[in-house]
Amino acid sequence: MSSPMDIFDMFFGGATRKRDNRSANVVHQLGVTLDELYNGAVRKLAVQKNVICEKCEGRGGKKGALEKCTKCNGSGMQTHVQQLGPGMVQRIQSICQSCQGQGEYINPKDRCKNCHGKKVVRERKLLEVHIDKGMEDGHKITFAGEGDQEPGLEPGDIIIVLDEKEHAVFKRHGSDIIMKMELTLVEALCGFQRIIRTLDKRELIITVLPGEVTKHLSYKCILNEGMPQYKNPFEKGKFIINFHVKFPETLSTDAIAQIEALLPPRPEYIIPDDAEELPLMDINPENDRHSKYRQPLEDDDDRYGRPQVSPDITKVNPQNSSFLQGFVQTLKTQKQYDSAFEDVETFLSPNIAEYENIKKLVYSPTGPLDRHYDDVRRFADAAEKGIKRILKAGGKRPILAILYQNPNDAAYEKYQQFDIAFCWESMLEAVMWHLVPLEIREDVPDKAAKIEALGYTSMGSLQSPVLSGIELGRIMCRDIGGSDPERMAAPNVATYVKELFVNTCIKIDIIHDQSVIEKEYPLLAAVNRAAKGVERHNARVIFLTYDPEGPIEKTVVLVGKGVTYDTGGADIKAGGVMAGMHRDKCGAAAVAGFLRTVAALKPKGVRVLGAMSMVRNSVGSNCYVSDEIITSRAGVRVRVGTQMLRVEWLWLMFFVT
Q: What is the pLDDT of residue 250?
């Protein structure tokens, strides 16, 4: 142990860690064609890497110029202690800004002129990448020890990841090659002969003899003509042909008669008198599968998706003045027989809870409230547990009440003035548990709502319309932010927003045209580059405006990040950290949700402007990379780093306001 604090760090996750004796590996992606994977190839790739500075031999300056950093005492980390409340502190550790986490410091006048004290310099390295026959998409080629150099560390590796580009004719499936071949109806019925040009430029002749009928969507294969096996290229998979028979659009009357004369007669069916005759419509199942996500419908009953509505929230004013006191007495009686009564939620049977037609009673204790660290969250936690328990019991129309068992004690007097805050926290937590994910509401309509109505009774002045308006915004925010990357791809978000704000006081402007986005929002277009080739992932720009009735006293501007899925692009999110990145659109979701609440409450004197930049950060041969320099809408040259989506909007909002 270097210090007594190391013991604390071992138990509570401090910053003391063993540093790896190797520098981090550097990963580069290399786009390759199917021809190169089939025949093998040699590619040259220029990469940038860090190498030890020859002038200072990795010291960063003159000999003896290194000094121990006085700010962090050589640890490279600084610790800040923040007091959260009486007896509660938070210990925050961050990289030392003076030495940038190195633990050492060099006086500026003693720094190396070549590396400027960084100990390393950037160098261009030309790698010769050998692509062997049979390698697959995602195959990793490692150049051991060619990674970035750092003083005192072994160089890591440079790893080249192969990215197979789509072929115009062939598609790979493991060791097999699949191609689609279109046949005319004559060829399918009477036989044919075709020539296939392979990936190694050979020409193969395939023949189907007359009398052998080729069915639509049927498969045939040629053995040992598929992809070569990696490290055993003389063994190959299958060459599979998928036949698509092209039928004529129409037939003449004479042709129909001739065909009927050659084919077996049609089967005859008995048609009942009460049978309905309906027209057949053309449909493309592949396109129709996503049609409800893309095409808004005019009919309110068949509207886009199933936007969740807030449950009917009503304040209950009991006619019987002993309404709450009767509950308190019931709870006190139950407490005498249950030692865990104040620790867990309790369900009381109907014959006990016979007040005001209430048939089920759940008591969810907050626990003690008079300790110095107790706060409003104890009410939220109790509301959450209580609602979950009443749902399990089959309740659909719960009433939330805050009951103080001893209204004359000091705790009651202390908290009575904050009762409205406790009601807000409890109700917002309770309402949240009625949420059903958007995908469930659309696929299983019978499970579209957990709660039909929610009542509350309290000493505070909680307003039902305000609470309902806030929850409408939170629902919209969860729908956009929490739904999967396909359900809430950028075009689907635009359609969803348009549907929910139609016939409201919110003005909507949506930019669909990709050429306009490229011209007006070049930084957003850079992120959109890899996704642009997939129509259902194309970027959208959404602008929402609320203009109040009467004079405008102030303007609120909101700009939200709407990355529907963030793969990291060229800086791929490896190691499992990509999971959950569909929530990278929650910033834009919050903007939409806030405007939804504004639409419901219609505040006076406040103008609200909201911008949502919706895009998918895909990875591919056309993705943007760090260090690119792009000219923004403002005419400023920007080197790619992060936060590309909101920069142009923030600049634009400055002029709008």
A: 85
Judge contact between 589 and 481, C-beta under 8 A.
yes
Radius of gyration of the chain (CA): 34
Q: To 10 degrees, the CA torsion angle through 372, 377, 380, 386?
A: -50
Alpha carbon 166 to its chain centroid, in Å, reads 26
Task: Enumerate residues 6+ apart whose C-beta is below 8 A from 253.
Answer: none
Structure confidence at residue 495 (pLDDT): 93
Q: Is 79 helix (H, G, I), strand (E, B) or coil?
A: strand
pLDDT digits (tens, 9 = 90+) for 571-580: 888 777 788 8
Residue type, 273: D
For residue 518, how many other CB atoms are within 10 A of its CB?
Answer: 16
Query: What's phi and psi for 150, nearest 5 deg?
Result: -140, 145
DSSP string, 587-643: HHHHHHHHHHHHHHH--SSEEEEEEEEEEEE--STT---TT-EEE-TTS-EEE--S-
- pLDDT at 194 (0 to 100): 95
Q: 206, 179 in Cβ contact below 8 A? A: no
| Nearest-angstrom CA–CA distance, 111 and 56 | 9
Report yes or no: 311 and 434 within 8 Å, Cβ to Cβ: yes
Q: What does DSSP say about strands 176-184 and 239-246: parallel, antiparallel, or unpaired?
A: parallel
pLDDT for 26 equals 86
Pairing outcome for strands 26-32 and 540-546:
unpaired
What amino acid is encoded at 57 in this protein?
Answer: E
Give tens-digit pLDDT for 383-426.
888 888 888 888 878 877 776 655 555 555 555 555 555 566 66
Indicate if the alpha-carbon torsion angle 502, 503, 508, 513 is positive or negative: positive
**Amino acid 184: pLDDT:** 93
Q: What is the pLDDT of residues 534-575, one digit of tens each?
A: 999 999 999 999 999 989 899 999 999 999 998 887 788 877
Q: Under 8 Å CB-to-CB from 268, ≥6 apart: which residues? A: none
Report DSSP state, residue 483.
S
**Identity of the amino acid at 239:** F
Nearest-10 Cα torsion for 530, 534, 537, 538: 80
**97, 5 Cβ separation under 8 angstroms:** no
pLDDT given at position 36: 95
Report the sign of the C-alpha dihedral through residues 169, 171, 177, 183, in that order: negative
Cα separation, 538 vs 515, in Å, equals: 11
How many angstroms separate the CA atoms of 557 and 606, rounded?
Answer: 11
The H-assigned helical ranges of 80-237 are: 185-190
pLDDT tens digits, 173-218: 999 999 999 999 999 999 999 999 999 999 999 999 998 999 999 9
